[in-house]
Write a structure and sequence with these properties.
Shape: globular
Strand content: under 5%
Strand order of the largest sheet: 1-2
Largest sheet: 2 strands, antiparallel
Number of domains: 1
Number of helices: 13
Helix content: 55-70%
Order of helices and strands: HEEHHHHHHHHHHHH
Distance between the termini: 49 Å
Length: 333
């Protein structure tokens, strides 16, 4: 499969999302599913409709399922991803309408992760099967919530998802895969279609239905990739690709612990919000974050082509830069 042959997957999902988003916005306004400003964390000037995540979900799966039926005349191979992804989407949608408790959401996320494992979507490089399953659940639940936490600024989470999904596509094509690159293209197209309406100033938000779904899909798709045979450090590739949401999650947790707050307590400690408070416009913060995400994906792609020592040096540099950035950001108010 070459890079251009299946570009119709990307554009199909993109066009579907472009059409679905206004419809979802209309339904959100009609039924009062709105994100209202509270002058604390939510400082937008007026109520913004949720349900953008509904558009992403349907654009993604409509495209993926249609291609699967057209090309292979079967849905075999995507059942686990579809079932688990739908559960996470439904969880987020209900949470957008009526807030759910944190423990309940974690339980549902763990359940959905177990479904992935049952269908063979899991970590496989550890020598012990129990460890493979445990780390799969930890990875999927962690990335799911990392994207949920990152969704704090117009266009931020969806843009980072586009960058990550396109990187999965390139890696999948290089590895000779078929399904995972197509799924990644579909996800990227759906996110970009939504981003047209979500970039600052946002006309619609994805809500938890979108952010939880995106995080879950990106975590799951990372488990379907074959990264490289060049070095054993390739297992770190998805960690680098998803470095922005992972960094922000650990940074926020660190700041909350320093302040004596529960790690799940909402606070304006996210690094994009700190940059915005210190003079950068929302658009500049988002573009800067996109650039960081793109740089990380280039590093990740380069590392999978290198021997272990050179790859290790690259990963070490990224880790040191992350620590330095966290220290400098913690000094900002």
């Amino acid at each position: 499969m070459d890079y251009l042959k299946y570009s119709y997957i990307f554009f199909s999902a993109f066009i579907l999302a472009l059409g679905f988003v206004p419809l979802c916005g209309f339904m959100a306004r009609k039924y009062g599913i709105l994100d209202k400003p509270d002058n604390k964390l939510k400082k937008h000037e007026k109520a913004i409709p949720y349900l953008g995540g509904v558009a992403i979900f349907f654009a993604f799966f409509f495209t993926l399922i249609a291609n699967q039926l057209f090309e292979y005349h079967t849905l075999k191979g995507i059942a686990g991803l579809t079932l688990a992804g739908t559960i996470i989407f439904a969880l987020g949608l209900v949470d957008d309408i009526k807030k759910l408790s944190v423990p309940f959401k974690f339980c549902v996320q763990i359940f959905a992760s177990i479904i992935l494992v049952i269908f063979g979507i899991k970590i496989q490089f550890l020598g012990n099967e129990i460890l493979n399953i445990a780390f799969t659940i930890l990875w999927v639940v962690g990335i799911t919530n990392a994207f949920n936490l990152l969704d704090i600024m117009d266009g931020l989470s969806s843009g980072i998802a586009v960058v990550a999904a396109l990187t999965y596509f390139v890696l999948g094509v290089d590895a000779g895969k078929t399904f995972s690159p197509l799924a990644s293209l579909s996800l990227a197209g759906a996110c970009l279609g939504f981003l047209v309406y979500n970039f600052n100033p946002a006309r619609i938000f994805m809500g938890d239905a979108g952010s939880l779904f995106l995080g879950f899909m990106l975590a799951a798709l990372s488990l379907t990739e074959s990264y490289t045979i060049n070095n054993n450090l390739a297992v770190l590739t998805p960690v680098v690709i998803l470095g922005v949401p992972i960094f922000d999650t650990f940074f926020v947790m660190w700041m909350r612990v320093k302040q004596g707050k529960p790690v799940y307590f909402g606070s304006p400690d996210h690094f994009p919000l700190r940059l915005h408070r210190n003079g950068l416009s929302i658009k500049h913060v988002v573009i800067l974050t996109y650039s960081i995400g793109l740089a990380l994906t280039i590093i990740a792609y380069t590392a999978v082509k290198l021997p272990a020592i050179q790859a290790g040096i690259l990963y070490l540099i990224v880790f040191i830069m992350a620590l330095y950035s966290a220290f400098k950001l913690s000094k900002l108010k």
